[in-house]
Amino acid sequence: MHNRPRSATKHTLVQKRSFKPGNMLAPVPAVLVSCGGSQGFKPNLITIAWTGSICSDPPMLSVSVRPERYSYGIIQTTQEFVVNVPSLDQAKITDWCGMKSGRNVDKFAETGLTPGPALKVKSPIVMECPINIECKIKQSLNLGSHTLFLAEVVAVQVSSSLLDAKGKLRLEKAGLLAFAVGQYFALGRSLGRFGFSIKKSKKNVGR
Ligand SMILES: Cc1cc2nc3c(=O)[nH]c(=O)nc-3n(C[C@H](O)[C@H](O)[C@H](O)COP(=O)(O)O)c2cc1C
After folding, report:
1. Cα-to-centroid distance, 171 and ligand 1 (Å)
2. Ligand 1: does its nearest atom lie under 6 Å from the Cβ of 87?
3. What pTM was computed for the model?
4. What tens digit of pLDDT does each residue of 142-167 get?
């Protein structure tokens, strides 16, 4: 194998320190989860960092929510929500929605974000967010501080401005946000597509 990827950092140069066990997985997304809009609940927004894709078929994702959040009762009752993936433009709003409670403020009204129609759930999508993932809860698990909601993705909407002439999704245009151990970051340049490490470069083709 002449084509093995090699790390630029040699392990002999790396020293390690023990760190307090905690949520150090990084980066993760910080998303705006919209909920409510049915069963007497006004639409609300909650910022969530403990979220992730958990199954391809059926497509599923999870969110972990503390029971003391106002959104918790809404999500628990309606059994649905929308994960809205914010762009860098919405970084400040994303942080703000994680500082204020829907018990005291109307976060859509205060932020000026536009609630739009979802395709398969009653909670609104956030029109300004480039990706909107509509979810219906399948299971919930009380883990301790947080309840983990395992949900099926029942519809997805993306902003048309992210599609190229051939209808291909160009997420690099979205300017996505990442969250790493308490800090927000801007996602940088694309380094390659899935599988790029084993793809033959053009100059190697035919050899
Ligand atoms: C970056 C960020 C990530 C957060 N992640 C979570 C999370 O994963 N789960 C959670 O329960 N709260 C999380 N929070 C806190 C809630 O967003 C916050 O308590 C919010 O005010 C709850 O709103 P609500 O009372 O309207 O539901 C996060 C806050 C921030 C700023």
Report:
1. 25
2. no
3. 0.94
4. 999 999 999 999 999 999 999 999 99
